[in-house]
Structures
1.
Amino acid sequence: MRRVGPLVLGSDTDPALTDSLGVADRHRPRASKVTLALSDRLSDLSVRCEGGWRVWRLARRIRECALNEYGWRCDHPVCPRCSARKAKKYRERIERELRALRPGVRVYHLTLTRGDDTIVGGRKRLLKAFRLLRRRHSFGQVLGGSFQVEVLPTNSGSMKWNVHLHAVIFSSSRHLPLADMRAAWLEIAGVDDVPGSLCLSLVQPFPRSDRGSTKGFSPVAFYTTKRRRSELLAFSDLQLREFVASVPGRRWMFRFGSAHRGSCKQQRLST
Ligand SMILES: [Zn+2]
């Protein structure tokens, strides 16, 4: 069966993408196609916005990254091609952590969401709220984990941005106190009890017979690494402007607790 992961960036029939590609670009790798399309979009944007020379410079930089055939990479966080490489490294790190788990440790996928009017403020408030949540009693059975913050424009509601994080968390507990966790989260984050503000699911990263191979636990690792896909092409001018101004220079991937050290000894979390 063909494995489908986050590095497959959208669909080839994506109209926003195919419209902006020339014939010669159709045979390029998918990440390069998205990067070229984004570069064109940013070039258009640069002539219409204030401080457009920065946007134009970014457009030129990621275009060079997409067209370079000698291994040069721009390493810009907005570049879809370089984001795909970072996502791959992140996924491989999670896979190593999962392989190193001692028997009996369970893996959960936690999603926390809150709306905000700005990307920078939303990221800051989400990180602070998660830090406070990790100190609560309901989170005491969690040993550690890795998480990544994502932002997407909201389609409805009063807030402009959906700021959320996907965390892979490790616990030796069979049942995490979901109701208590949710109550604590609603109080700390100051969000309404809407579906999706806190989601927790147990994932079985690998079947017992398949321990040590990547097969079987890819869903959780893939899910946490989806970011910066061709969704950027669907952003409005204002949204794209804020996105490219806010994302660079900030950390978006984190880990906490002890799981990343290769074992999951029960110990107090350092947050
Ligand atoms: Zn790049």
2.
Amino acid sequence: MEEKRDGAPETDEATLRRDMDRRDFVQWAASLSIGATCLLGAVTAANAVNPPGRSIDGKTKMPPTALAAVADLPLGKPQLFAYGDDSLFLTRTEGDKIIALNAACPHVACKLHWDEKITQYACPCHASFFKLDGTKISGPATRNMDPAMFQVAAGKVVVSGFAENA
Ligand code: FES
């Protein structure tokens, strides 16, 4: 039998109740810790599949839309355009040829950007890199950048959607 703080002996029942309270608290704290660990693991797993940089899915379907006049596109410098909820790059090359590429990385769809210093498309999520024409250079992406479908009409680039490389 233990003594209470005032020096009087504590009953078995009181000791048992105190031990139960302590045990309940320890169990509660352990559950909280396990719950927090599971939540952290779930967030980490979700980030691996859907990284924070992901902003587009590259699957917008909408009527053909004129995005730019060919003459307004600078030679050899990709320009980013919004297309529905997605984005695409239009580049004018020699002979006024147009390259149209989905800005969604073919790995898990993070939004690519054109890095002028290295003259490559770069992915901020897992470091895939692509040439101006969308050909994969390096990184975890397993295919080239996906093309955007377009035609030139009355001097304008009219985009009608995205295709997907095999
Ligand atoms: S989304 Fe992973 S490399 Fe681009």
